[in-house]
Write a structure and sequence with these properties.
Number of domains: 3
Domain Thiamine pyrophosphate enzyme N-terminal TPP-binding: 1-106
Protein name: Acetolactate synthase large subunit
CATH class of the largest domain: Alpha Beta
Helix content: 25-40%
Pfam family, one: TPP_enzyme_N
Distance between the termini: 57 Å
CATH topology of the largest domain: Rossmann fold
Strand content: 15-25%
Number of helices: 20
CATH architecture of the largest domain: 3-Layer(aba) Sandwich
Radius of gyration: 24 Å
Shape: globular
Number of strands: 17
GO biological process, one term: small molecule metabolic process
Domain Thiamine pyrophosphate enzyme TPP-binding: 373-517
Length: 520
Amino acid sequence: MNGAESLVHTLLRSGVEVCFANPGTSEMHFVAALDRVPGMRCVLGLQENVVTGAADGYFRVTDRPAATLLHCGPGLGNGLANLHNARRARSGIVNIVGDQATYHRPFDAPLTADTEGWARGVSGWVRTAAKATEVGSDAAVAVQAARTAPGQIATLILPSDTCWDEGGAVADPLPVPAVPQADPLAIRNAARTLREKRNVLLLLGGRAVRAGAQRLARRIEAATGCRLLAEGSNARMERGRGRLQLERVPYPADQALAALKEVEHLILVGSRAPVGFFAYPGVPSRHYPESASVTVLARPEQDAEAALAALVEELGAPEAAIPDPGPRPEPGRGAPTPEGLARTLAALMPENSIVADESVSFGRGFFRESHAAPPHDWMQIMGGAIGCGLPLATGAGIGVQAMRDSGGGDRRVIGLQADGSAMYTLQSLWTQAREKLPVTTIILANRKYQILLGEYRNVGANPGRTAMDMLDLGNPDLDWVRLAAGMGVEAARAETLEACGDLLTQSCARPGPFLIELVI
């Protein structure tokens, strides 16, 4: 058995069953091992940032790490943007990165790079295999690291001779460390604040925005009168009927400051204290009052739901019903607006849909209009590195197929995708077509970097001709129907919400991918 074969056997034995791949020469022995050893689903992405973003989406849906296969340091470099987003989402991923053979590295061949250095900025664990006999044990440690709460990126760098040399040994899975529990003192401190203080905000993030944790937070809200909010971006929030009507900390600095200005006491549950996405002249970096006290109930790596359960017990908070969001809305009509599209989505999405949201500026108000939708999951861009939406939806689609095959039922993935950021990872559509993924993509085609127009004004400037040219996607216009067709995905254009709704309904009734170009 060579090192590559021991790697595949160990990954499978450790529960890693999907490999998102874009291989090169240094990885051919790993590719050959994937061919010889049955059990691994191999999903080809045509660019590494598709591969890493898909692994992120897969973890968010399944709570299980996938492997990636990346070609040397530059291939890792191509995937860094979505690894940055995945790190912020606290997703577990096992990166397998090829490298020069150990004896070839001193010759400084063209692809030689500081692969470890590039990996460290996005990884919680990094190791370069030294010899074939250790590849299996290294892989077992990598999976253990990826599965360590709340989820980490583990990067294993494989010099090519560690793959082709004989002597590989399959390693047994390593135990996953228990999820750390919140400090009892932190629970008592939070309870004291909730009992004795006014204007308390319970800020939920991470796994605290899952349904079970939401029910506990609702009991605390009802018993104490505190306020509930979610972080501005969330890796996977469970939403819709039967879940809390949670709003998020707004993205625009002025709106965030206004929303939080009355907060006197901030309790963090799997979240971080709100700060600005960017700095602006004369605007504070903290978006909560300087005078507010901050209490950490549960850090992101701790068990947020258990912490909320302990807080409920400490407060003696009785059961409390989730408020009814009212009837399911009617689909929007007429020209596309953010509110109308949100109502259309809420009215027509299938139950248990998964929304992959990279709608950027157009989608900031979607939550308010979609609380009465059927139960669904909502995933957002976490690190601000654009180009995550299409890969997220792709990985989520693979996750849906994996769960369906194990009895989890059918689910539809709906991508809400700004047109500018979609161009960063357009190749995702090809993978969706090849794998016949249950993904409907709604391209929000405003043909400009709308968010940057706002940011340009936020720094006190008015865009002139040169600036407008750099923020405009026209001349020529992008034709998403033809672009999708070129990737093998059927597509159609909609200019009204009625047309968008009809296409959404039709696409959700079919098994494979579909793209709607919504002209806004």
